[in-house]
Amino acid sequence: MGTRDGALAPLRHRPFRYLAIGRSATMLGNAVAPVALAFAVLDLTGSVRDLGLVVGARSLTHVVFLLFGGVLADRLPRQTVMVVSCALAALTQGAVAALVLTGTATIPALVALAAVNGVVAAFAWPAAAALVPQTVPAELLQSANALNRLGTNAAMIGGASLGGVLVAGVGPGWGLLVDAATFALAGLAFSRVRVQAVAAPRTERANPVRELREGWTEFVARSWVWVVVLGFLLINFAYASSVNVLGPAVADETIGRPAWGVVLAAQTAGMVAGALVALRIRVRRLLRLGVLCMFADVLLLLGLAWTPSVAVLIAAAFVAGVAVEQFSVAWETSMQRNIPADKLARVYSYDALGSFLAIPLGQMTIGPVAETIGNESTLLVAAGVVFVAVLGMLADPGVRRLSTELPARAEDADPTGPVLPAAPSTAPGPAPAGKVG
């Protein structure tokens, strides 16, 4: 295998290296922050309700502004959006840290700063995801996405551990200060990303509503895009709520809390291993493989329902972690190769909106359902929802037939130039125009 096609070949491209460093730094801080913020609020008032208000404020503004974040990332240079977003995130988290460290924090102040941080994250996420194709040639996108996932997963593991150590050793305020520092470091890294712009110059006055409609048109124009997003709306609704809400309840009754922590660690380890696997896998129907892998989520839900033993749950969680990484890399690579580059961030924002809405809705719903029909029955229903969602995605010809093969293009000869996804007409799939790509 040649260097250009090797698993680590994306690291030879300077813009990608700085992008990967920046994304890993932000993920490290994002893993530290929830631990530090939770204990900061609990130290302040001891109220879980207050903690919910602070966390909920960030989630709400994140969802509300996510689509407009996609518009901005398609209109402006994406690396600039990332630099400004990181600077604002560093300022907001630094302000939270200062309030906590000086003993002047109040719940209204924390809610306001969390809301601002949610807005900042809404503008950063689509820009970061859509920036990847501008940093490497198109044939290296799969490896680039796998390396990104590997770095962010490792940062999540390290950040969660670091957050616990900081909170226990020096207090939550210092953990929040470290979070602010990681955003500052990420901003410096993003400022070194030098890529050509993909957005065509506009002669008419910008209209955000029209640009949102353009993004929606791209989103629904390919069946494999909206079918997968709809499928994962159901999966996130059922799986995330089952693992995050019912999982601890089942663990309390069976394997115990320490063992449940080991199960979650096994899932994260599986994600790291899955990213390593995704670096090496080369198949033509990458999206089909990724969707097929999501059947693995059913195993963990069935294990919680029927055989909640430590060995079974650790094995199922590890396999689920490996599987989700295969899908994640397949999905990002498919999007980046088949969505027009100047509309990619907006399509990503519609994709993310489905996920961010589904998870809290599922977490709020599953408790009352479990109280009515019991934990086991609820977990079995959730497993059925995941199974049907995966079958539904595979029923779409676009999901089954989408190819990762690239047409020969002049742009690929220059790795520093813009990397544009394949035109819609080049992607395989059934005819009505635009449904598959």
Helix and strand composition category: mainly alpha
Distance between the termini: 30 Å
Number of domains: 2
**pLDDT averaged residue by residue:** 82
- Succession of helices and strands: HHHHHHHHHHHHHHH
Radius of gyration: 21 Å
- The CATH superfamily of the largest domain is MFS general substrate transporter like domains
Strand composition percent: under 5%
Separate helix tally: 15
What overall form do the CA principal axes indicate? globular
Q: Classify the fold: give the CATH topology of the largest domain.
A: Growth Hormone, Chain: A
**Model regions low in confidence, pLDDT < 50 over at least 5 residues:** 408-437
Structural summary, described in words:
The chain is an all-alpha fold. It has 2 domains: 1-199, Growth Hormone, Chain: A; 214-437, Growth Hormone, Chain: A (Up-down Bundle), CATH 1.20.1250. The protein has helices at residues 14-44, 48-75, 78-101, 107-131, 141-169, 172-191, 208-220, 223-253, 257-280, 286-293, 296-306, 310-338, 344-373, 375-395, 397-401.
Task: Record the SSE blueprint.
Elements: H1 14-44, H2 48-75, H3 78-101, H4 107-131, H5 141-169, H6 172-191, H7 208-220, H8 223-253, H9 257-280, H10 286-293, H11 296-306, H12 310-338, H13 344-373, H14 375-395, H15 397-401
